[in-house]
Design a protein that fits this description.
10 helices
């Protein structure tokens, strides 16, 4: 049996490592206990259920990326938010189903607070009200998390060749959505068929284009009229 002291952070780190092998659906307390060489009931001293474990896993993800999520020091707000959202996407993509794990969780400590404070400070210093700054940051984060959920669901997945993704069937080569089959199904809807290449390929470019639109939109709709020009 394991002799290393069991604590919440150690369990979360092992769970994140195991996540890359099993995906979220295959991640169980029993599997994590086996990896830790303990009995499953030992984990219930630390986590009352799987959701509590996911909360700790999401917090552990943020702990490792907090400096990057704070954005670029001394940068304008657009650069800072853009840099932070790129970091958030990288963090989520580092783990299989990382965006699903992260979405809807409650942080177990204040690791997230310093990055959020840094972003809100840059936004308010640029002329956003506190409320508008919070909405701007939440909008950018929601876009990023949602984008990665779809990216991970419909893009290439370990061992997923031929499996059904959230957006449709994966190609036989394991490269994600089968656009040829999709186009055939949508042959009577030519615009929708053609859109597949933009929606389900080139995720990096697609993310950047959408993020630029979000940041520009935030500047137009949420920045106060008396603020410095953007």
């Amino acid at each position: 049996m394991a002799t290393t002291r069991l604590d919440r952070r150690r369990v979360a780190r092992v769970a994140l490592d195991l996540l890359n092998e099993t995906g979220l659906d295959g991640l169980t307390l029993r599997a994590i206990a086996k990896e830790l060489d303990v009995k499953a009931p030992a984990l219930y001293w630390h986590f009352k259920d799987k959701q509590a474990l996911l909360d700790e896993m999401a917090t552990e993800m943020v702990r490792g990326a907090a400096a990057d999520l704070a954005g670029t020091p001394d940068a304008d707000w657009q650069t800072s938010v853009t840099t932070a959202m790129r970091a958030l996407r990288r963090m989520l993509l580092h783990y299989r189903d990382g965006a699903k794990v992260y979405s809807g969780t409650y942080f177990t400590d204040t690791s997230y607070a310093a990055p959020v404070e840094a972003q809100l400070r840059r936004l308010t210093e640029a002329g956003f009200t506190t409320g508008a700054a919070a909405r701007a940051l939440m909008t950018a984060m929601s876009y990023t998390i949602g984008y990665v959920i779809e990216e991970q669901a419909s893009g290439p997945r370990p061992g997923a060749a031929g499996a059904e993704g959230a957006a449709g069937a994966a190609g036989a080569d394991g490269e994600g959505y089968d656009l040829v089959a999709r186009a055939e199904r949508l042959k009577d809807y030519p615009l929708a068929a053609a859109a597949g290449e933009e929606m389900f390929r080139g995720y990096e470019d697609g993310f950047e284009a959408g993020l630029a639109a979000v940041v520009a939109g935030v500047g137009v709709t949420l920045l106060g009229p008396g603020a410095r020009p953007v």
